[in-house]
Amino acid sequence: MTGLPLADVAATEAAGAALGRLLRAGDVVALHGDLGAGKTSLARGALAALGLAEEAPSPSFAIVQAYDRPDVSLPVWHVDLYRLEDAGEAAELGLDEALEDGALLIEWAERLGDRLWPDTLHLTLETTPDGARRLTWAVPAAWEGRWPPSEFSAA
Description:
Blueprint: E1 3-6, H1 9-22, E2 28-32, H2 39-49, E3 64-67, E4 76-80, H3 95-98, E5 103-107, E6 121-127, E7 133-138
Parallel strand pairs: 2-5, 2-6, 4-5
Antiparallel strand pairs: 1-7, 3-4, 6-7
Helix pairs in contact: 1-2
C-alpha cells in the first residue's frame, strides 16, 4: 500500500501542510485513525499552510471549528464526528454549506456512513511498532493528479 512514514508530530504537520496547499473549494478530506494517531496534527498543518497563525484547537468538544478569511486563504471547517452516535445527526451540522466556497477536514468521517461525499480523499494515520506514524491514502478521481503531492515521491 502506498504510504508515507511520519517520524513525529512535526512530520505529521508537514504532511498536513502539503495537503493544505492543495485544498480547493468543494474538497472533502476524511481523516481516519485511532485516538492519538495524529488526525488533529495533520489538520493543524493544513490550516497553518492556509495561513492560520494560531494553533487550531481540536474540534472534539465543539464538533465543528470553522475558519474563514482573512484568518485563512480558503474557508475550512475542521470537523470531529467522534461524539456523533448516528449519521443522521450530521445533517444538523450543515456540512454542505462549507463546500460552497470552502473545504472540509473531517475526523472520524466513518461516522457519516454512506453520507460521505463520493469524491472524498481518505487519509489514514496508523501508529507503527516504533511509535512513529504512517500515512496512507485512497484517492478518488477528483484528487487524481493532486494527491499524493510531488514532495512525497522522495519519501
